[in-house]
Amino acid sequence: MNTRERVLEALSEVHDPELDEPITSLGFVTSCAVSADGDVEILLRLPTPQCAPNFAYLMAADARNVLRRLPDVGNIKKKIGSRKKRNRR
Question: Which domain holds residue 74?
Answer without folding.
Answer: 4-82
